[in-house]
Structures are given as C-alpha cells and as structure tokens.
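User: Write out your own:

AI:
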Amino acid sequence: MRFRVLRLLESNPKLSQRDIAEALGVSAGGVNYCVNALIKVGAIKVKNFRDSKNKLRYAYFLTPKGFAEQSALAGDFLARKLSEYEAIKAEIDDLIADFGEDGQDRKPKKREE
C-alpha cells in the first residue's frame, strides 16, 4: 500500500486520508497507519494549509527519501506483477491447449460402457 499512497500523494499532495482510502479501496484507518509510518521514516512531510471552507487541512509532500522509496517500491511492484503475469499467461496457455480458443474441450472423452 505504501507504493500506491506515495504515487497518489506525489500527484496530489492535498488529498485527505479519506480521499486516499476511497481511491485505493481500503480503510481510512489503514491509510492513517501507512501515512504515519511514511512520516516516521521521513518519506513524506506534512504541512498545514487552509481549504476554501476555512478548515485546517494537511498537504503531504514526498521528501527525497520518499522519492527513493517510491522508486524502490516501484521496482519491487513491477517484478512481482511481471511474475504474476507470467504465471497467469502459462495457465491460460495450458487452458487453451486443453480447451482451445473457443473454450471447447479438445481432449477425447472416455466412452461410458
């Protein structure tokens, strides 16, 4: 989740934690935990600002350490997704060999006697 949070905050630092949670389809509590962990390790900095309704809000800015972490996480994410892709592609190829492109069974059926 850290990678996805960092990507969102890089493009829109003024997103609220609730907005991040909705965008990622996770709980606000999970996002809060992740954001606090990123702050603690120095990957993001928090600045206050006032929104149009005169409420105090926060903006989250990636630090150089945050950009480095995002790059490292991107590499890990890409490697994991490529591995998943290769496994799924192999499974699809096996299914096509068994059932063909149209999904029809290509294996001869045993006769019932």
